[in-house]
Amino acid sequence: MITPLSAGLVVAGLLLAFVGAAVSVYAVTLTGVLVGAGAGYLAAPNLAGLIAVDGLVLTAAAAALGAAVGGFLAYAGLSFAVVAIGGLVGGFAGRFAVGPMYAADAGGIEGTLLLVGATLAGVAVGALLGFVMSRTTLVVSTAFIGAAFASRSLTPATLDAAAAEATVEPLLFDVTAPAFLAVFVLGALSQLGLFRFGYVTKLVALLPGARRWTASDDKDGKGAEGA
Fold first, then answer.
1. Three-class SS of residue 225?
2. Which listed residue, of 75, 112, 118, 202, carries a Cα 20 to 30 Å from 56's Cα?
């Protein structure tokens, strides 16, 4: 059943996937809001015993506070946020896409070390690309995160399960799922097309504040500063 919350996440995911990097300031801030809200939502059960507030109210307040903090930090430090987003997506890809290929035949501590190494390598590579290739990193990252929500690979139900079990396992999803891959690939290609054919300039002109920071150039490590 599609709830207003589920529909909102799908719409936010589609916006991130298809126009994220083109309107960088909005995409980075929205990503910060989503990540912050998710972190607050997951942290709420751990605060239930410390704060004498109704569980539903506490969860809503924690998610709202996390969203506000995440959005503010992302907006205030846009270039740093791109590095962080690149590291986050890189770490996920390293742990759940690349790592299993190397750790498939290893067991025990060896397999664990291989997965940890792949995760850390993914974080490092993603963060580095976020620093030296901000536009490309933002295109891939927003398409990836947006596809996860738009394809319903991540849903309120999986967030509920993760919060209840205090584990990230319910948040894991199949990166080869057709729906996820379709939105990811189409979104990334769409964003690259917006840059290639000059539509970014038109979008930036229409949206207030978008000129503050637009990842329109990979020739420097910071992206292009808004004109």
1. strand
2. 75
Give CB contacts under 8 A, 24+ apart, made by 35-40: 35/70, 35/88, 36/66, 36/67, 36/68, 36/69, 36/70, 36/71, 36/73, 37/63, 37/64, 37/66, 37/67, 37/70, 38/63, 38/66, 38/159, 39/66, 39/70, 40/64, 40/65, 40/66, 40/67
Structure tokens belonging to residue 96: 């759940």
* d(C-alpha 118, C-alpha 60), whole Å: 35
Q: What distance in Å separates the CA atoms of residue 150 and residue 183, rounded to the nearest whole number?
A: 7
Give the span between the Cα atoms of 156 and 38, in whole angstroms. 10
Distance between CA atoms of residues 38 and 208, nearest Å:
27
- Among 94, 61, 91, 73, residue whose Cα is nearest residue 31: 73
pLDDT one-digit tens code per residue, 3-17: 787 888 899 889 888
Q: How confident is the model at residue 224 (pLDDT cuts 50, 70, 90)?
A: very low
* Residue 205: burial class (beta carbons within 10 Å; 0-12, 13-18, 19+): exposed
pLDDT band at 123 (very low <50, low <70, confident <90, very high): very high
